[in-house]
Amino acid sequence: MSLFGSSHFGLPRMKPLSSKRVHVVSVLDIGSTKVVCMIGRLTPCKESSVLPGRTHNVEVIGIGHQRSRGIKSGVISDLDAVEGVVRLAVDAAERMAGLTVESLIVNVSAGRIGSDVYTATIDLGGQEVEGSDLKKVLVAAGQQSQGNDRAVLHSLPTGFSLDGERGIRDPLGMYGDVLGVDMHVVTAERAALRNLELCINRAHLTVEGVVATPYASGLAALVDDEVELGCAAIDMGGGMTTISVFAEGKLIHTDAISIGGHHVTTDLARGLSTRIEDAERLKVVHGSALANGADEREVVSVPPIGEDDRDQPLQVPKALLTRIIGARIEETLELLRDRIQKSGFSPVVGKRVVLTGGASQLTGMPEAARRILARNVRIGRPMGVAGLPAAAKGPAFSTAVGLMIYPQVADQETHAGQGGLFSPFGNGNSRMARMGQWLKESF
C-alpha cells in the first residue's frame, strides 16, 4: 500500500527514539546536484547546551554519494535515472557500514513546500489545563490544515496562549478560561511525494520519514542561540534555494525558490559559449560573487564547445566571469531578501542569517549576502555529528546531516487530526505501540 495514496494515512511518522537505546538510522538526501546516503549510529547522551534538543550522539558509520541524474530543481524528471543513483549511493553506504538498509528518512524540496500558521482555541471554563485539553486544541488546529492535494510534512505547535496571554511554552497544569495554540504546518503536494516514494520503493527500500529540506539543513547548521533568538538558514543547493526561520527553539517558517548554483553554471555556459562541465569547473576554480580590481587584468581560458581539437581555447578577462556570476547571485539574494520581508518574519530573523548548501561555497558569497540582505551572514557547516569524512564536512552536506539529527526532534511534532496516527509500514504490533506512544502526550 502506498504511504501517501490513502486518505486514511498521513505521511509515515518517525517512531520517537528511546533515550536508553542505541539506534541505527539511515537517511537519503536527494538533491539536484548529488544524492547522499548516510548511515549513523545514535547513542544516548546527556543533553548538549550548544545544540538544542539533542538526546543522542550521532556517529556516521557509512556514507555514499553520487552525482544526481533525473532531477531538475528538486523535481524528479526521470524515475529510472533517480532509482539507479539511489541504489548506487545506498549500496556504497551499506558496504562502508557493513549492514543492509531497509528503510530511510528522506528529504523533500519539490512539491511547492507550503508554510502556514493555524490558530485554534478551546473553552476551559476556568479549569486546570490537562493533557486531554492540549490534545483537543492541537487536533482543532491540525484539522484546519487538511487538504486533499497536499500532505502535511510537519506540524509544530509554536506557542500556546491562555485567556489571550501569548508566549506560553507549556500550559499544562495552569488555569484559565480559553486555551489557544499556534500551529506551524509545513505541507507539500502529494504528487511530488508519491513520485519520491516510487523511486525509493523501486530500489526495494521503504520510506521511514519525510523531512522538508529547509528544516533538515537548519537543524544541522544552526547553534542553540540562533535557534532560540531567531535566525534564518538559507540552503543554497544546485537546483533550489530553501529558507527556514527558527525562533524560540522551533521551526516557524519555511520557503523555497527554484534557483540554485546550477543556474549560475548554465549562465556561464551560455555567456561564454562553453560546455556545462567546463562552465562548472570555471565557476569553482575562478568564479566569485564579488568583483575585484585585478579581475580586468587576469585572463582565463575557456574551452570551446566544438569537437574540433584545433579549436583554440578562448581567452577572456576574469571580470567577465565575475559579471555573469554576480548578476545571477544578486538576483537570487534580492529574491530571498524580498521573500523574508514578505513572510512577515523579518523582525524575528533580526540580523542573523546562516548560509549553507553547496552553492554557498562560491568565493565572495558571504560578502555579497551581507551587502544585499543587510544582515550578519556566516557560512554554516553541519555540526553535532562525528565520523564524517573530510569531503563531507562542508555546507553541501548540511541536509544529509540534518536528516540524521531529525529523529531526535521528531517528537516535538503533533500528528493529531491528520489521520496520520498509524504508520503504514513496519509490523502489525508496532502500529499499536505507536498509537500508545502518541497517546502518551508526546507533545
UniProtKB/TrEMBL annotation:
<keyword id="KW-0131">Cell cycle</keyword>
<dbReference type="InterPro" id="IPR050696">
    <property type="entry name" value="FtsA/MreB"/>
</dbReference>
<dbReference type="InterPro" id="IPR043129">
    <property type="entry name" value="ATPase_NBD"/>
</dbReference>
<dbReference type="Pfam" id="PF02491">
    <property type="entry name" value="SHS2_FTSA"/>
</dbReference>
<dbReference type="InterPro" id="IPR003494">
    <property type="entry name" value="SHS2_FtsA"/>
</dbReference>
<feature type="domain" description="SHS2">
    <location>
        <begin position="25"/>
        <end position="221"/>
    </location>
</feature>
<dbReference type="GO" id="GO:0009898">
    <property type="term" value="C:cytoplasmic side of plasma membrane"/>
</dbReference>
<dbReference type="GO" id="GO:0043093">
    <property type="term" value="P:FtsZ-dependent cytokinesis"/>
</dbReference>
<dbReference type="Pfam" id="PF14450">
    <property type="entry name" value="FtsA"/>
</dbReference>
<dbReference type="InterPro" id="IPR020823">
    <property type="entry name" value="Cell_div_FtsA"/>
</dbReference>
<comment type="function">
    <text>Cell division protein that is involved in the assembly of the Z ring. May serve as a membrane anchor for the Z ring.</text>
</comment>
<keyword id="KW-0132">Cell division</keyword>
<keyword id="KW-1003">Cell membrane</keyword>
<comment type="subunit">
    <text>Self-interacts. Interacts with FtsZ.</text>
</comment>
<comment type="similarity">
    <text>Belongs to the FtsA/MreB family.</text>
</comment>
<protein>
    <recommendedName>
        <fullName>Cell division protein FtsA</fullName>
    </recommendedName>
</protein>
<keyword id="KW-0472">Membrane</keyword>
<dbReference type="GO" id="GO:0032153">
    <property type="term" value="C:cell division site"/>
</dbReference>
